Amino acid sequence: MKIIQPYQTIGIMGGGQLARMMCIAAKAMGYKTAVLDPTPNCPAGQVADIEITAAYDDIEAAKKLAEVSDVITYEFENVHYTALAELEKIAYLPQGSEVLKICQHRYTEKKTISDMGIKVADFRLIEKPEDLENIEYPCVIKTTRGGYDGKGQMVLRSAADLPAAKELAAQAECVLEKFVPFSKEISVIVARSTTGETEVFPVSENIHVNSILHQCIVPARISPALEKEAIDCARKIAENLGATGVLGIEMFVVDDRIVINEIAPRPHNSGHYTIDACVTSQFEQHIRAVCGLPLAETTLHTPVIMVNILGNHLDKNNLHNLAPYHPLLRHGKIHLYGKAEAVNGRKMGHINLLGSHDEVFKLVDESGIWV
After folding, report:
1. pTM confidence score
2. Cα–Cα distances in Å, from 336 out to 15, 149, 350?
């Protein structure tokens, strides 16, 4: 086990909002940070000590990150695998590249989870459009690589949707999943350290709008038995993968059972509530895990509803105009990500609304911001 001491440097592949919040947590703990991202003045670059502007597959830039870092982590699973594997040869990457490789490919990811004896939706690989003959509706087709917030996927409800699905399959390898008639979407944030220690955060109930996460409700409105099953599944996945760091595991509730949807091998949007509502945030826990420090408590000290702030929820001419949010600020804390341009559907920040769910739901409805 290697312990990274304060005042040493944590390198991060990726410079978006997740890396930004990692940097903030790391700097509060006395670490320096370096980020690699293709966008100048990226969200994480604004708070990091060192900013390297380069493409994710730029091997020389990755080597430069390694030169200035004592440990390296990554903020999202679409970091270039080849560059990361090369980086692993010359730098300390406690997460490793193998978990990333599994999670970057939806078919491999589902097979890996299924092989653990954990339930996923029935699935099969689609390598060409002709593989879509004799399918059962409804079903979901997804590209095996890339895609997020509903991108690179579509629901097939009847044969009328087949031409569009075949067009998608002609462009990229896909996975076809049986449609899951879920009653709720939930997620669990689990952390595993370099010593094999694990800690799990409270279960989040997630509500999506237009395939983008809108609200996270914590505690989730599920039974104690389902909560235990979700947490047990999260621990089992983290341990079987031999993961290090934080994992966000998305799940469906189907007939009082858990079905795993997908794994994100890094902090997750549905864990942002932990910044203000838990003893430890997912970002501090991630830094602790990759630096070889003991993991901290994950106790929820107040009910919370996290609401994403998208580009269409902000004044495009003045991104710092928070006047519409003033009625909510007594109950909530706003986190904006430092993005230069507000684009509709793009995540610009989030607000953690603290207090009883009924009270917070009323505030959200009355604000009219998210209509």
Report:
1. 0.95
2. 14, 19, 7
